[in-house]
Design goal:
This protein is of the alpha/beta class. It is built from twelve helices and twelve strands. About 45% of the residues are buried.
Length: about 375
């Protein structure tokens, strides 16, 4: 969500956070624990409820000094996200959703076409077993990737970036990693809620397995594309199929509920998403339909990550989905999976796709390129 304005700092509103803390001195911990238990016992006896939130006062937020000059200048050219306005722009029915999608996707499709031309990447519309895809090919495929392919899943909260609008990231991946990309134009609500998107990914993946080894396939995307990558991998394991050789999840929307800590901490700070309460929350419920939002094929962080292939994850300190990414990384590591977590100073959600000239963006895709070369076979 684009913001307009200028300023060196932003004033953050008062907010509430759940308490967390740490100290190296065991004596205060013991004293605090005893006192807390005594107070809690008194509360229970009186039948009262204690407010456990932290009330954080308003304070200015300057542009991140540790970020690159390019990223800093971009942030300084924006005003803080208007959380109240975002919450008030929620489509109320299918017609309003389709109008929102049409207006957003038209601009994104134009940007994608211009980007493909500038980066000398060819894009061809195709169909694989009834699923529409875009074949995105760089002008100079890396010889090491000659027999490999990247299966791309676009972002857009499971409702946006259909058609040509969904190929921006695919173009960047093809150009910067020099690998052929197949970007899946998966079905989305309001017409096609879950499990249509997962089913489309599985359909295309099954077809690819007929002509190549799973270890020659990478799969990934940003935001909903990262979440769908995780969910689809859960489904592939459930079906007993060989998993891809490597996965990429950029700021994955791994939990469609408002659970992660940074959904609260970075609310009004992430200049791309702004807040969960608004279009994001409505999109989550539209996508899930009648299903539980914590279904692992909808919110994959709640699934079992045993058997996952190596994964490369990216997020930033101002990303609303930083917690989604961190929690996913911990689930992967606990399951014994090779997982690389890269956190960039000052980046909001998917900034590496919005400021392609920034050093952070070049590092993200440079790291991805190296990751693919290490793990694809």
């Amino acid at each position: 969500m684009n913001q307009v304005g200028h300023g060196l700092s932003q004033t953050l509103p008062t907010r509430e956070l759940l308490p967390v803390g740490r100290t190296n001195n065991p004596i205060p911990i013991l004293i605090f624990a005893v006192a807390a238990l005594a107070l809690r016992a008194g509360d229970l006896a009186e039948g009262s409820k204690q407010d456990t939130s932290w009330h954080i006062p308003s304070r200015p937020l300057t542009a991140p000094a540790g970020a690159s000059d390019v990223l800093r200048e971009m942030i300084m050219g924006m005003s803080a996200p208007d959380v109240a306005a975002i919450r008030g722009r929620v489509p109320r029915d299918a017609a309003q959703w389709k109008a929102l999608v049409a207006s957003r996707d038209a601009d994104m499709a134009a940007n994608a076409a211009a980007l493909a031309g500038a980066l000398e990447v060819s894009v061809e519309r195709d169909s694989i077993d009834g699923v529409v895809v875009r074949r995105v090919t760089p002008d100079n495929v890396d010889p090491k990737h000659e027999d490999r392919v990247f299966l791309h899943l676009h972002g857009g909260a499971y409702v946006l970036n259909g058609g040509d609008a969904g190929k921006v990231e695919a173009v960047v991946i093809a150009h910067r990693t020099r690998i052929r990309v197949i970007s899946i134009d998966y079905r989305m609500p309001p017409d096609d809620p879950f499990p249509a998107a997962v089913d489309d990914v599985v359909t295309v993946y099954r077809r690819l397995l007929r002509g190549r080894a799973a270890t020659s396939i990478a799969m990934g995307g940003t935001s909903a594309g990262g979440g769908l990558t995780l969910a689809a991998t859960h489904k592939l394991i459930e079906l007993g199929l060989d998993v891809p050789g490597a996965l990429f999840a950029g700021s994955p929307w791994a939990d469609l509920t408002k659970t992660g800590d940074t959904h609260f901490i970075n609310e009004g700070i992430d200049h791309v998403l702004g807040t969960y309460n608004g279009v994001l929350e409505a999109a989550a419920r539209l996508y899930a339909g009648e299903r539980d939002l914590k279904d692992p094929l909808i919110s994959p962080v709640y699934g079992d990550f045993r058997g996952f292939p190596p994964m490369y994850l990216v997020t930033g300190t101002r990303d609303l989905f930083l917690s989604d990414t961190a929690r996913t990384h911990r689930k992967l590591r606990t399951a014994g999976v090779v997982a690389e977590l890269n956190v960039y100073e000052g980046m909001s959600h998917g900034d590496y796709l919005f400021v392609l000239e920034a050093p952070e963006s070049h590092e993200v895709f440079g790291e991805l390129s190296a990751f693919l070369l290490r793990h694809l076979r």
